[in-house]
Amino acid sequence: MNSELLLSKSSQCITQEDTSFARETVPQKITVILPAFNEEISIGSVVLLARQYADRVIVVDDGSSDRTAEIAEKVGAEVIVHSLNSGKGMALKTGFEAAEGSDVIVTMDSDGQHNPSDIPKLVSPILEDVADMVNGSRYLNGNRKNTPSYRRVGQTILDKATNMNSGIQVTDSQSGFRAFAGHTKDIFRFNSKGMAIESEMLSDAGKAGLRIKEVEIGVRYDVGRSTENPIRHGLMVLLKILTDMEFNRPLYYFTIPGFVLGTSGLYMGLSFLQTFYLGGNLHFGPTILMILLTLVGTFMVFTGIMLHSIAGILRESIKS
């Protein structure tokens, strides 16, 4: 398949909408980062439309085996190639490093799900200095009916876990369509190599005290279907969030489970005392279990409180 045919097919993935946002009139330098893995069908149209709203479009080809890099370069993108597939998190890290000097950095998927014509909505709050980070949300107005049911359940769980971990409230924690003020580029860890990067970046933004705003975006589910099992993907992301929560929100991670365990132990203890008072016998196994639950629960509660205080001091030092 030649490049012209691929570009023709690529242009069908996204419908071009209003292009009245003239980047030439905006003094700030806007850079769009597109992580890409085997996206030769869609990458051409995504780059062409993104260039209408940005000064630079950087495509990070994450070890593609097709002509993604070639087509992206042909339509005017700056292309950085990973020799091996390293995951979305590493692709974003590479893109952020290459975006040095940008006033606004926009990240979006390269499979055609996101429409570049939404870029002005994301960058406006940053240009107006009312936000440091803008999250593009599919569910800002509560509209989840167009989301496939299997995604809806998993998305709700990941949203709740991410919000608990980050300490901020967003309606679409797994959105890859975001805008960042240029001065925030160095606060992100990029420890997550895969799709858990979306939640990790919100966690980092929360710890740094960034001003976060959400705007509504559209999304297409008939393109860019992942080959990864959605259940496995969701569980891996959730596991990463819970691991992160151990350090960010120890009060949730230790104190709440510890309270449940300790309360269970005390309840068993009261039952045993009642049995003993009425002349019954105490069995060795349940008694040991009661003692262990009470001790472990108490230890977890105090550990969570102590780590919560330490985490609060660290967050304040980071903000200052």
Describe the structure.
This protein is an alpha/beta fold and 320 residues long. A seven-stranded mixed β-sheet has the order 3-2-1-4-6-5-7, with helices on both faces. It is elongated. Mean pLDDT is 85; it is low at 15-20 and 22-26. It has helices at residues 3-10, 43-50, 68-74, 88-98, 119-127, 149-166, 197-208, 230-248, 250-277, 284-319; strands at residues 30-36, 56-62, 78-82, 104-107, 133-137, 178-181, 212-216.
Give me the secondary-structure topology.
Elements: H1 3-10, E1 30-36, H2 43-50, E2 56-62, H3 68-74, E3 78-82, H4 88-98, E4 104-107, H5 119-127, E5 133-137, H6 149-166, E6 178-181, H7 197-208, E7 212-216, H8 230-248, H9 250-277, H10 284-319
Parallel strand pairs: 1-2, 1-4, 2-3, 5-7
Antiparallel strand pairs: 4-6, 5-6
Short recap of the structure:
With 320 residues, the chain is an alpha/beta fold. Helices cover 49% and strands 12% of the residues. It has two domains: 7-247, Spore Coat Polysaccharide Biosynthesis Protein SpsA, Chain A; 250-319.
Helix/strand/pairing category: alpha/beta
Mean pLDDT: 85
Query: What's the Cα radius of gyration?
Result: 24 Å
Could you estimate the helical fraction of the residues in percent?
40-55%
Span between termini: 55 Å
Number of domains: 2
Work out the number of β strands: 7
Name the poorly predicted regions: 15-20, 22-26
CATH class assignment of the largest domain: Alpha Beta
| Shape assignment | elongated
Q: What is the name of the CATH topology of the largest domain?
A: Spore Coat Polysaccharide Biosynthesis Protein SpsA, Chain A
Strand order of the largest sheet: 3-2-1-4-6-5-7
Q: How much of the residues is beta strand, in percent?
A: 5-15%
